[in-house]
Prior knowledge:
The chain has 508 residues and is an alpha+beta fold. Helices cover 34% and strands 26% of the residues. Strand 2 (85-105) and strand 3 (109-120) form a beta hairpin. The longest helix has 58 residues, at 423-480. The relative contact order is 0.14.
Amino acid sequence: xAVNKAKVAVGFVVCGVLTVFFGTLLTFVGPIIIDDQIVKNxxxxxxxxxxxxxxxxxxxxxxxxxxxxxxxxxxEILLGEKPMVEQRGPYVYRKRIQKDNITxxxxxxxxxxxxxxxxxxxxxxxxxxxxxVTIPNMLVLGAAVMMEKMPFAVRxxxxxxxxxxxxxxxxxxxxxxxxxxxxxxxxxxxNKYLPGMLPSTGKFGLFAEFNNSNTGxxxxxxxxxxxxxxxKVDSWNGLTExxxxxxxxxxxxxxxxxQMWPPFMTKESTxxxxxxxxxxxxxxVYQRPGEMNGIPLYRYVAPKTLFANGxxxxxxEGFCPCRQSGLLNVSSCRHxxxxxxxxxxxFNADPVLLDYVNGLSPNEDEHGLFIDIHxxxxxxxxxxxxxxxxxxxxxxxxxxxxGKISEVVMPMIWFEESGYIDGPILTTFHTNLVILPAVMExxxxxxxxxxxxxxxxxxxxxxxxxxxxREAANISTAVCNPGASEKEHKDSYDHEKKExxxxxxxxx
Length: 508
């Protein structure tokens, strides 16, 4: 039985059209399927095993790199000369984060406490915890500023107390002691007779209250009812607004807890988050697109207005009393101690701050903070949060320990908390976020290209088959009716005439 090529070709044309239709359909349905999977895996739900485990235990390695500003001329500072410092470090600590006391609520929120522990990493550090460093004594110089407006007799008594416990204006201690605490008779005295005056009840150290501690009770949205609210803070320690600042706007608890954000971000999106350590909400802004191991990302950075004073940026008036732009006064949430936070080396701050201290050299590459985030999922791929701790110090009459110190915001330490996705997690991300969408995209256009090619080839085959049939019909007509005109020969492809001709030939 002869194969009718024309009919086969028509069949292939139909298949080609269906293939093109399927490929075109995928271009619309494919992104919807991917977005639906992102939503399902972004919701905070124990049923989403991988994403829930990532949220709960944060398997990405985080590190805290600490840099001290070692004071080179403490005696000269007491005589009123400009401070001179040298940066020492980094002293690197691996940070382990784990959420505990996780409780899901009927209103699609979940509460938890996040615990953190730090472990020294000698191989990543530029020294050991036994290194000796000199920094201002916060207990003395900070208390002096706090007591400045107290009666003269009280200030004399405070100064006498410092002398009794042999507390001077500067501390020379090991890195480990300054970080995690040292024994102090004054600290023991204050904790016994003035409980609550100091942030910790044991040894006094810059990070003593951070290690083996939690960041408070967070209640955040799971995203089950609205994926746009996932990870956003509902309350912190039962509060929906803060009690520290002067305006409702500054007291708002905005954004997430600073680890993940809602998916489907755009370049117009911002990264708001609440930081218990900074006692306020902060917001990063889009800077540029980028790529990490083939995974597309958006880089977000701190705007210059983040630590601007109320004069330069009116919405920050609620964080005052302010000093120069670039300093955030956190005394209201740090037991009224004259402590300011800033970017390291006063980066993005009023340049006048650099005139008061020798040894500082700010630059964006080392001292700017950023978060690289995958916009489709809201998951950070690379994080570097840099902050500096500063002490406001000055001469206070009757407290002789302050000598003739010139008024200055003195940098003490700065630290960088950093982490990036690597290893199996990065491989999983690359597979799910790069390879699979690329395969689906190639399939879409592959189906369209295959369908168009099939239609083209089948059309050519169909055309050739029809042409062959017409030629065969012309030949048959010529044999049946040799005297036929040229026009009749051309019209001989009519099916009925061909059938009769073939029947006549058969009878002969």
